[in-house]
Amino acid sequence: CNQCEYQATTYRTLKRHKESKHEGVRYPCDQCDHKATTSGNLKQHKARKHEGICYPCSQCDYKGNTSESLKRHKERNHKGIFYPCDQCDFKSTTSGYLKIHKESKHEGVRYPCDQC
Known about the structure:
By secondary structure, the chain is mainly α. The chain is built from four helices and six strands. The strands form three sheets. The protein has a two-stranded antiparallel sheet. It has a two-stranded antiparallel sheet with strand order 3-4.
């Protein structure tokens, strides 16, 4: 980030950081005073707080906001599925996170600001 010390591993993450931390972009809830920093967070807020939607885990007390978050929870906490890095001791719970790890930690991939 050209405005602080933050370093992103993906362009999307850098863009989201700049919008929420430096540009003050907020997504207001139309049902209460909550203001989310991302549209995804607003969607989760509305589902959990106003629509009562949750996805309970059958193996513990966890309740997910989305079916995808429940799926990720189960993979991380109950199935023991890991994707090990072949260059260090890092283990990821998803192949996507492993790819991001390898790019940022071993290949030096960074996403510079497109505005400067």
